[in-house]
Amino acid sequence: MIHQLVHASKYATMPSSSPITTSSTPLVLLVIYFLLVLRHQISFSNAASTIKQGQTLEEGEILNSSTGVFQLTFYIQRYLAILPVFGNIRYEPVWIANRDTKVSSGVLSLDRDGVFKLNGDNDVSIVLYSPKPDQVARTRRNDSSITATMLDNGNFVLVERDWSTGNEQLWWQSFDHPTDTLLSGMRLSFNQTTGESKALTSWVSDTVPNSGAFTLGINPNNTRELLILQRGIIFWRSGVWDAKNKTNLPSKWMNQTDSPYKFNYRFFSSENNVENYFTFTGKSNSTILVWVLRSMGELQSFQFDMDSKGGGATFRETMVECGMRDGEITTEGCEKQEKVVCSRRSASEKFEMMRGRVDANYSTPLTLMGETNMNASRSDCMDKCMSNCSCVAYAMADSTDQIGCLFWSDGSRFIKDNELDDVFYVLPEAMGRKKEPARTDSTPPARTNTSSAPPKKSPAVTNTESIATKSKSRKKWWIFFPIIGPVILVFFLIVLRWKRIKRLAKFKEKLMGKGVGSRPSPQQVLTQLKTTTHSNEDSEQCPDFQLFSFDCILSATNNLSASNKLGEGGFGPVYKGKLLKGKEVAVKRLSRSSGQGLQEFKNEITLIAKLQHMNLVKLLGCCIHGEERMLIYEYMPNKSLDSLIFDPVGRQVLDWRKRLMIIEGIAQGLLYLHKYSRVKIIHRDLKTSNVLLDADMNPKISDFGTARIFKQNESKCTNRIIGTYGYMSPEYAMDGIFSVKSDVFSFGVILLEIISGRKNTSFNIQFDTHLNLIGYAWDLWQRNVVIEMMDSILANASCSPPDDNSVRRCIHVGLLCVQERAVDRPTMSEVVSMFANEAMTLPSPKQPAFLVGRNVVAQNTREESEICSHNDVTISTLSVR
Fold first, then answer.
1. pTM of the predicted protein model
2. Polar residues composition bias: which ranges (predicted)?
3. DSSP 8-state class, residue 852
4. Residues with active-site annotation
5. C-alpha angle 180/182/186, rounded to 5°?
């Protein structure tokens, strides 16, 4: 199960049957406080944004998006919903999975076959997605995995990931099933062939999310026009969108460069004009835009500015309101409604919204035909009340099986009380006042006065009796005095803990050398990159470095399509691209789970941009767009070394001369990093997949995401080990100690793999005598038959067969590089000399690492100059790619 602690304090209750004395209250509250703190620490470590196969999400649990902006949870314990969270304020749902079917004790599950469904104790089962037979077959063969993820744009997606290719296929998404809210990037659409429509449908009322009377969608008559329908009758129309976007929407909402309302609207069609689409996006990456279709047909818009203080709504306005004011329609495009109205009333007469209760001594319930057997919305109730001259008030009744209306006749009295949850819509005369202009908005008064937040929908009325007869007595405030003292004490303890956490955070930042400054924004990082990579001092080192726009990358890679995907590394997928001038590039798109922040991203770029060597892949530029971070490299047509050397067909093109050239090229590249670059760099993740081959088979080392900068003669210790099994040195894999000798070990493994054409980890422990390729080479060396290790393709080559002495010498160098003790391994400078000077006598190799166990004496690791701190309570993390 997915556990996440984001439980709002407003849901906390205290049983009335458990009396607490004044003297014991502080102790009890302190115990509760520390239990909550402990639960927070435990739950926080289990935070997740993804449901995997076999997992569930239950009531009380929350699935957060990676930034926490959107949450998937059970809303008022009956509806599975997505709720936005801005500035520590949880707003009302933007999407509900089961709006017309309530569930009790709901459970969202994703089973092993990929069936995605919502179950409840009331025998309710709602299947969100049922996979096709071929999809089920793939999951049962373990060829792929299925995950459901809450994304930062408010979309909840079900995705299949192919293990062999890394490609992802979208199975289902909440964006395809809109409710009453349109988010940035969502689409309204209508298909002329199938008649399928994706449209917004209002709530029944401001408190009940069932499907209401109004819909917002695209005109089905193949015109680029938005329509709001009320029970199938046109209520409002936008007018046809032309090239200049001239519509009945207020002009300030259109795509104007000087407009403070940051909407980019798009109305487009499919290639064969079968389907029309409407969508909008923000003009800024830091804004989230929302349209909401209200229960009375109003269309409201909100903009959440993530950069603003508190992160709340920076503006909210009603775009469409088809009411009457002084006899005039309030919004252009509203259609005149032919409705039956009592002859004694004006069509513009308004009901006033109020919280409170009915005065039982002066109330006359009114029975109107049809209110008990209809799935009525608030607009239906209002129209019915307006048509009857005796009706002075109405309310929504939400029962278990249906939604209905309650009405009251002339003479009924209502008592206003904003502390109560029941909502009524009353004519001024029923409240003992003369008729006067009433409220025109359709939202109950907010409990809190937050001018920057959109109005919240009030809690739903649970049954019809509560409206007619419920009466709450005034609270006796004196009973709260005994707990004021303990509450103040708990508040004081919370403040102390908050200050302590803040001090610890500052201390950790100083300890890690990151300072205490604020996190840089993408714009700040871009500015720093421009300054760093184009400074006078470095103009010769990286004259071609560019900052690419996101649109340029999308155009070059065909919108990052799967057909352009070259592969996927530890930090994300790589795409082939073609710039406007025809130059081919490789675009590495860093995944959000890569662990790299903006500052680390900037450091990596400024590091690689200054590295200029023929055996290092050249960084051409970068792109930062919102959460997207990309590196643009020169394109290597022959892809990576592992795609050839481990392929029975591919490695036939690698004769001995080319293999030797690749080995020596990798050695030259490492030597440059360790000794001749402006700073000493340790790669830490050198492997065959990180060696790319250009058109002439020249090797180029790539993927510097884990590289570290060092002073000379220095080694370091880390408790976050990042590398790949089979290529990590023993001291790094076991103790987290890494130095230049760690890269030497990885080079030795690659050398042996190039000569043999086999992976170091390709040996089967059950059937092979040796644990790995290193053990196999060592056994052959001891038996003086090491030449048997050579790839059979090389041994059987008819033209340019390899010289046995040359092969034997290369294997000798490889065994020297993979020796167990780091101090016994040669430096890359010595390795290059061994290749260049064939007359040089090589020392005999000692036992290599990872044979049958590890035999390292503690003093051996102390022979190196170490800068290594050990923490007895820290558990090292092994991240293998």
1. 0.47
2. 440-453
3. S
4. 685
5. 135
